[in-house]
Amino acid sequence: MGLSDHRPRIEIHSREAIVLPRLVQGGAHTLAAYRAAGGYRALVNALAAPPEAVLAAIDDSGLRGRGGAGFPVGRKWRAAARQSAVPKYLVANADEGDAGAYIDRFLLEDDPHALIEGMLLAAHAIGASHGWIYLRQEYPAAQASLERALTEARGAGLLGPRILGSEQRFEIEVFVGHGSYVCGEESALQHSIEGRRPEAMARPPYPTEHGLFAQPTVTNNVETLVNVPWIVAHGAGAYRALGFSQSRGTKVVSLNSLFARPGLYEVEFGVPARHIIEDLGGGLATGKLKGVLIGGPLTGIIPPHLLDTPFCFEELAAIGAGIGHGGVVAFDEQTSIAALVEHVFSFGAYESCGKCTPCRLGSRRIVEIFSRINAGQHSPKPGAGEWREIVNALRMTSLCGHGTGLGIFAESVLRYYGEELAACFG
After folding, report:
1. Could you tell me the fold of the domain covering 337-424?
2. d(CA 214, CA 170)
3. Do the two domains 247-332 and 337-424 of this chain adopt the same fold?
4. How many C-beta atoms lie closer than 10 Å to residue 241's C-beta?
5. Residue 2 — pLDDT band, cuts 50, 70, 90?
6. pTM to 2 decimals?
7. Looking at the DSSP assignment, which residues form a beta bridge with residue 132?
8. 20 to 30 A from 357, CA-CA: which of 22, 127, 365, 425?
């Protein structure tokens, strides 16, 4: 069963319920419950058609990755599908490490077969024979739920050498991570599964060509894969009818405990960020809003005067923010920007894999600068110029989203809280 005593508020605020329909009903914890809600019908239909049918549906739907980068899913799948090397692999990234994010957790605990069906459809599309669910170590209840669901699926002929009597073969295993935040990045995640040091790698080659165990590999996060059965069942057009501009469909956001109404909310892309913060979340319970981080600490802050920006990939990127994974963390006017910078960079420095110099050394140097500021130590005087140089290096030369995300966060501080920041170096 899912959590009963700590279950969050779960609501759907979109024209179609794609990701959360079973969760709002209390979950579908068993194969019987999932099938009663229409589960695995998309898989049955897909196995009767060529893989191209699924690839075309995902392409035409406009589905983009929900893990942070927003990369077109169909493009990634096609890159793997056209590789001649076998075997091919599929990884579900359930290493949900962002503060305030608990979307994957409740999908895995309360609706595990939705992920399994999504993985089966993806495997059929790209020709994968084996899959891994890379699970965050801090989610033991999710691991138990997944293992039960996988056992049910094997018993029903949904996993194994001949899925539902077809020629398709696919097996899934759960791999529990070891608490490294950087394993949310796909190349570091793959190294972890291989038993190697988890660190980001330069590209090319891309994982769809040379990934896990040097084989073509597709990695998608949990929410991305949970979208797939709905798209295959209802059609790409129905999915594309939802959303706005280049951001189609819906997105689940998790609002942290500082909101008046914390919980999970499924919204259509295109609604103003203000709708999420004020109408759904009820604003901050602690005081007047000073800023919002959507999608984890490694992204830009949205100041109050920009909350009418559409909740979309490109539109938020244009103001230096992002969708990320969808965890929404807000802070009030009592929050010191200098303290926030030290906190975020302390996290970033601790979790850096150490592969590239700007992230390994630059993040630690920023922590040193702001720890002196916050302690009131002005001798030697902290250097604003040095801080800006490090931020530029992080943004421009880091190997992965960990370092560049720290740079994006810092740039938003400079852009929107420059006056308060300047006082720190005065």
Report:
1. de novo design (two linked rop proteins) (1.20.1440)
2. 19
3. no
4. 14
5. very low
6. 0.94
7. 91, 173
8. 425
